[in-house]
Fold this protein.
Amino acid sequence: MFVFAFLGALLSAAGSSWAQAGRQPVDWASVSLDSIGGGPMPTGDYRGKVVLLVNTASLCGFTSQYGGLEELWRRYKDRGLVVLGVPSNDFGEQEPGTKEEIKRFCEVSFDVTFPLADKQVVSGPNAHPLYRWAAAQTGALGTPNWNFHKILIGRDGRVIDWFSAAGGMGAKLDRAVEAALAAGI
């Protein structure tokens, strides 16, 4: 476990150091996601908000992070934060359920109220376009390589930082969210 924590901290620190120059903003109006509850997800509503994009999985050792994500959402949503959960079965086949099963699990186990998309591919050439965009912005180190990888997107639609699953939920993520909300960009 120490090795995973150390590796996560090292990768997260590397993510903080890369420059924002040349990064392209996401055009939320053109992002097409379906809600886990059915129907289209109004991603155009995310324009001008700080978005924490997180690929999730119900059977992962990091699944307890749902609780921290919900707490973050409740604490900052009125200030402009959107926690956007994107279930994925990409890593270890740890999200095998249907959208109904995933939604029920999240609501019953963690009282999740933040927006959840329908299950998506988040890595490789078949990744959802939002994750291909994010990979182009962050490079290999910032691309999800496990469940509960977090990508922080500023109000201007540009990637601010990324956080590995092993980095968990903590002070570094809280400070980054606070700074993004205060920056107004």
Q: What stands out?
A: Residues 1-21 have pLDDT under 50 and may be disordered. Helices lie at 2-17, 65-76, 99-110, 129-138, 171-183. The first strand starts at residue 33 and ends at 34.
